[in-house]
Design a protein that fits this description.
Elements (H helix, E strand, L loop, with lengths): L5 H25 L7 H14 L2 H25 L6 H21 L4 H15 L4 E2 L2 E2 L7 H15 L6 H26 L4 H17 L3
Antiparallel strand pairs: 1-2
Helix pairs in contact: 1-5, 1-7, 1-8, 2-3, 3-4, 3-5, 4-5, 4-8, 6-7
Length: about 210
């Protein structure tokens, strides 16, 4: 996070907002499951095993698998030589969101559409890769909050550390996007994913035009 330019931090916060947006939509639509926050689904799966709730385990487990498949796809797209990584990865994210929204419009089950959205969120994490490793996590914030707290601790000790601002912006992006997603869902339902697809398409164009 600290080794990235300010423009990249803004992009990261925007993409975290996108993740928060679709996570709220998926959480409401699927009934308490996540399309971008896999730690939550892991806990859901664990509780389902303990309770013998096999349907819940199937839903949570399928979302986790779809997310990992998306990560694989995004990483493969990011590793192709001779292309600009970020626009290609974000184009993949856009395409998956369009497929999910289109499938819902064609009356596909919401759970199946949510799996495609989860794959899109997995792919999104390849936007900021360095040497095959994610340098900024876009769909999960626990590590970001830990780093924010560590930076604030240095401030308390008297250091002139402003790194916490970047971590706060990233977390705020996810939280703000989730609020917006929940509000939009009230009017559009799962069709809110079209809005997310539009946001991803805009991010694709911006990264291409600004050579990010």
């Amino acid at each position: 996070m600290l080794g990235h330019r300010r423009e990249e931090v803004v992009l990261a916060a925007s993409l975290s907002s996108l993740a928060g947006f679709v996570d709220a939509v998926g959480f409401i639509a699927v009934g308490g499951y996540f399309v971008s926050f896999m730690s939550g689904n892991t806990t859901q799966a664990a509780v389902a095993i303990a309770d013998g709730a096999w349907h819940d385990l199937l839903v949570a487990g399928s979302l986790i698998v779809a997310f990992v498949v998306g990560v694989v796809g995004g990483s493969l797209a990011a590793s192709v030589r001779g292309i600009r990584r970020r626009p290609v990865v974000l184009a993949l994210v856009t395409a998956l969101l369009v497929i999910a929204a289109g499938a819902h419009a064609a009356s596909a089950p919401v759970v199946l559409c949510a799996l495609v959205v989860a794959a899109a969120m997995g792919a999104e994490n390849a936007t900021f890769e360095r040497d095959g490793e994610v340098s900024i996590g876009l769909t999960y914030m626990t590590g970001t909050l830990v780093k924010l707290g560590q930076s604030l601790a240095r401030v308390v000790r008297g250091d002139r550390d402003r790194a916490w601002l970047r971590y706060a912006v990233l977390w705020s992006g996810l939280a703000g996007g989730a609020v917006l997603g929940a509000l939009v869902y009230r009017g559009l339902g799962f069709a809110s994913v079209w809005v997310a697809a539009g946001g991803a398409a805009l991010a694709t164009l911006v990264t291409y035009a600004r050579d990010l």
